[in-house]
Specification:
By secondary structure, the protein is an alpha/beta fold. It has a single domain, classed as Transcription Regulator spoIIAA, CATH 3.30.750. Strands 1-2-3 form a 3-stranded parallel sheet.
Length: 111
C-alpha cells in the first residue's frame, strides 16, 4: 500500500485552509493511505478541523485510508474536544474507522 505523509507544523487557520485543501486533494490522488502528521502543529481552528473531516470523507469514498498523527498535548486534541468532534458512534458519512471515534482517537500514536 502506498502511503503519503503530510507534516503540518504551522498554525492551521482559515487563512491557509484552501492551500491545505489543495495539498490534501493532491496527495489523495496519488496514494492509498494519507497520514496527516500534526504532532508539531501549534494551533488549529474550526475551519481546518472541518477540512480534516472532509479529507477523511473523501478518502473513505475512494476506498483509501486517512490517518491523523497527534501528540498527547496537541492543540488539535483540545479543539476536537471543545468543538464536539469526538464521537461515540460513526458519523452519517459512513467512515467506519472515523478518526474522531473514541475508540480510534488516540493521541500519541497513529490512528
Amino acid at each position: 500500500m502506498s502511503s503519503t505523509v503530510l507534516t503540518w507544523d504551522k498554525p492551521l487557520t482559515i487563512e491557509i485552509v484552501r492551500e491545505l485543501a489543495d495539498e490534501v486533494l493532491g496527495a489523495l490522488r496519488q496514494t492509498e493511505e494519507l497520514v496527516v502528521d500534526l504532532q508539531g502543529c501549534p494551533e488549529i481552528d474550526l475551519a481546518c478541523m472541518q477540512l480534516l473531516c472532509a479529507a477523511e470523507r473523501s478518502a473513505s469514498r475512494e476506498g483509501k485510508r486517512f490517518v491523523l498523527r497527534l501528540s498527547e498535548d496537541s492543540p488539535v486534541v483540545a479543539v476536537a474536544e471543545a468543538g464536539g468532534f469526538i464521537r461515540h458512534s460513526p458519523c452519517l458519512h459512513d467512515c467506519k474507522d472515523c478518526v474522531w471515534m473514541v475508540t480510534t482517537f488516540k493521541p500519541g500514536e497513529s490512528a
